[in-house]
Recover the amino acids of this structure.
């Protein structure tokens, strides 16, 4: 004997309506999470579309290991700062929100920096100034301002995760291209980041007599970045040409990254 | 009765791009011959590699571009073959091959040609849209990326202890060793066991060591006049360049003002401090001076367009070449000077707009100032 049978028909109707509402809310939440993932990883990727955080993106992606190290650090800071900003969003005065965001981000960056100093000293050294410079990464403060300061903790943290993953992916792809072209290797020095076992990850793609310095120096990062963006735009254009209607619908939807 | 009224200019030169490019390529022949005579087959092999690569790269991009054009406007598209063989890609490749050290590995010219055609020329929109001279941008990219290979200059054949014939040169470029097993470093070494460099490089090193120019030019790479081999190569390029001016293929203002600017700078320096500055003739007849003056700076796409603008462009280039040669880190600065001047060309054009007939100059200027 369940509860429903004991209730009067009106109450039962109420209960069903409530459940429907709950299911609807859940479905909407699910949809929002999905949209957040799509936005962070592809459509509004901080590296490829928003072109935020270009300074570390171009400076430290000479190898996959460096790129991965910086990407993970940024990811961690982004999730924590988004969650914190979202948690205290009711008490932040609008006028001084930016300094507060920066303080929160700086606190987390300091934590990450100290952690990396302690556990992955090699990568900490090779990242150098670009690790503390995560504070000034526009991608992070941009997410705090545009999304986390207006949305609940759960969504804000998920947004941080997806944006951070999108950024990390771009960093790793760029690092891989530059490492293969520049040194002919992959995962060189992975043991600095992941521990001694990771030195087996190093792959010699092809032997190079001399390094291709252009790919290792920052101009090579700009050129490779340009090619990656072009590739993304080509894929988008192809998708649009294949499903003209589907993309139209997506455009009509409210974009979660701006205030609606 | 209606007359067809044509707008000015009324005198047309009916020559097409391909004819222009062909003239320039013919004018390069004396210089290429001189280079072959003094330095052997290396540069011809590099030119061949570069031309083949450049044509392949050009074909790749043009076919991509034609495919996307098909969708929007099917008719009226230019044929790939006419664009491919308009001579611009071949000229770029020949200029690039001429600049390379003759014993550099084969992939140097291949990478340089790919970069020059795809990144410098086609990514900016193809022929007529590139802000930089493709050959020089490719050369500078190579110089920055592969400093060792790009500075391993071969001494003139007459100074070499090892006989370098065509199969030997080819094998050195492909494998890094001659068929007898000599490496590039050994080829560059003279009988006394010293590595020989270009005259410009030797001068720069020796002045850095505290020697005077007078002591330096006794080195055998300088020969009996200014710089062994290079002086005749530069003279040959000068002859080709004069031919181009005579044919009105290139404007005379750019090379003349460039050489004049180099003359003024080096003359002043030589008058003040003859111990540390080489003579004007040495500057004119060594490195890539004449090639740059007549064949690179006169590129109609990446240079300045008005008469006054061309004079300023040449003066600036001459000053930059002198500054880089005497004070910079690299022994020769023609390629860097050309790229820097290419960057300045739009600004020069902006301020040297010629007066159009029937308009006052100051009105145009005051409008610009606003």
């Amino acid at each position: 004997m369940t509860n429903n049978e004991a209730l009067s028909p009106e109450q039962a109707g109420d209960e069903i309506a409530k459940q429907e509402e709950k299911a609807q809310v859940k479905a909407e939440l699910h949809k929002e999470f999905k949209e957040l993932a799509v936005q962070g990883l592809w459509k509004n990727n901080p590296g490829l579309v928003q072109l935020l955080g270009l300074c570390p993106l171009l400076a430290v992606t000479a190898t996959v290991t460096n790129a991965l190290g910086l990407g993970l650090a940024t990811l961690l800071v982004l999730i924590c700062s988004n969650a914190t900003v979202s948690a205290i969003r009711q008490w932040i005065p609008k006028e001084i929100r930016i300094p507060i965001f920066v303080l929160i981000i700086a606190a987390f960056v300091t934590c990450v920096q100290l952690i990396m100093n302690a556990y992955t000293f090699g990568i900490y050294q090779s990242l150098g100034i670009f690790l503390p410079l995560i504070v000034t990464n526009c991608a992070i403060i941009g997410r705090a301002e545009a999304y986390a300061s207006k949305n609940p903790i759960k969504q804000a943290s998920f947004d941080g995760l997806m944006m951070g993953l999108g950024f990390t992916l771009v960093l790793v792809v760029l690092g891989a291209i530059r490492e293969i072209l520049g040194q002919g290797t992959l995962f060189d020095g992975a043991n600095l980041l992941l521990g001694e076992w990771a030195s087996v990850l190093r792959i010699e793609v092809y032997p190079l007599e001399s390094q291709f310095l252009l790919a290792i120096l920052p101009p090579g990062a700009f050129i490779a970045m340009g090619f990656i963006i072009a590739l993304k735009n080509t894929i988008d254009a192809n998708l649009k040409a294949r499903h003209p209607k589907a993309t139209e619908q997506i455009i009509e939807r409210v974009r979660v990254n701006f205030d609606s | 009765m209606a007359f067809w009224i044509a707008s000015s200019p009324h005198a047309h030169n009916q020559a097409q791009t391909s004819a222009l490019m062909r003239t320039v390529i013919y004018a390069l022949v004396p210089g290429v011959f001189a280079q072959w005579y003094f330095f052997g087959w290396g540069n011809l092999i590099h030119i061949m590699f570069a031309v083949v690569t450049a044509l392949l790269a050009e074909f790749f991009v043009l076919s991509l571009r034609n495919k996307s054009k098909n969708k929007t406007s099917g008719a009226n598209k230019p044929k790939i073959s006419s664009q491919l063989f308009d001579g611009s890609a071949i000229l770029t490749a020949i200029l690039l091959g001429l600049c390379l050290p003759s014993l550099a590995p084969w992939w140097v010219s291949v990478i340089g040609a790919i970069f020059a055609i795809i990144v410098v020329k086609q990514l900016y929109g193809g022929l007529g849209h590139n802000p930089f001279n493709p050959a020089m941008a490719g050369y500078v990219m190579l110089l920055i990326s592969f400093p060792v290979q790009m500075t391993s200059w071969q001494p003139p054949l007459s100074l070499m202890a090892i006989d370098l014939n065509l199969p030997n040169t080819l094998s050195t470029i492909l494998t890094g060793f001659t068929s007898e097993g000599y490496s590039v470093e050994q080829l560059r070494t003279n009988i006394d066991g010293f590595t020989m460099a270009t005259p410009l490089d030797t001068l720069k090193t020796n002045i850095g060591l505290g020697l005077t120019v007078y002591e330096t030019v006794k080195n055998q790479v300088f020969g009996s006049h200014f710089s062994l081999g290079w002086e005749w190569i530069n003279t040959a390029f000068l002859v080709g360049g004069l031919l181009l001016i005579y044919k009105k293929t290139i404007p005379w203002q750019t090379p003349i003002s460039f050489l004049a600017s180099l003359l003024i700078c080096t003359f002043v320096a030589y008058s003040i401090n003859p111990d540390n500055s080489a003579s004007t003739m040495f500057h004119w007849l060594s490195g890539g001076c004449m090639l740059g003056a007549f064949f690179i700076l006169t590129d109609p796409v990446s240079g300045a367009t008005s008469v006054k603008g061309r004079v300023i462009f040449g003066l600036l280039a001459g000053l930059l070449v002198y500054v880089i040669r005497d004070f910079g880190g690299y022994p020769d600065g023609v390629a860097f000077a050309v790229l820097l001047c290419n960057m300045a060309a739009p600004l020069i054009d902006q301020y040297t707009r010629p007066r159009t007939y029937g308009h006052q100059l100051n009105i145009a200027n005051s409008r610009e100032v606003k």
Notes: Chain B has a mean pLDDT of 83. The radius of gyration of chain B is 22 Å. Residues 18-67+79-196 of chain B form one domain.
